[in-house]
């Protein structure tokens, strides 16, 4: 059956352009942009089920993780603390944030991270799991050990930096056809594929290109996986909420 859960929720005001950090031990993190000047954090702590024979050991060794929640003027800090066995500390987070946001230290050990409909600066770290950053505009630094990374980027600007690395896994980046960007890709044990023309014939294991002029900087590195750069189709499923909001439309 489904393991029992313990729920946690906090809703606090946060102006656009504020900062959030969320350090999880294990579990999924989903962050969505919305039109409110507030943050809604909903979390489910998984309560491990003991095998019958180990009930007493379970009671002593496995208490649910503690969620520390702090709100400063323009900064929300969320942290999971293990109270017993670290491996058994699993919390899934669902967080709604203003579209304009800085996401600092978004991290989890085992679990997937999904971020969508936001613009600003994002720093994310993940040990085992996949990362998806959808309908994003701004600067992104993403590091994954075991897992793939998929991102769709809109309205990239000269000051934006996209730095994506994974040790085991593929990287897929969707860009607008009219993007201005300098792109550097490296995958020692994989191949690079692109729907944009590169300076090097593809597939290759190292390649770079400058598309347009005065563009954003993208550095994509996968040690053991492929890198694919694709064009966003006009029938792309997401509305360009982030890009439009950033342009003030």
Automatic annotation (TrEMBL):
Protein's recorded name: DUF4097 domain-containing protein
Pfam families documented for this protein: DUF4097 (PF13349)
Origin species: marine sediment metagenome
InterPro entries, A to Z: Toastrack_DUF4097
Domain DUF4097 stretches: 105-229
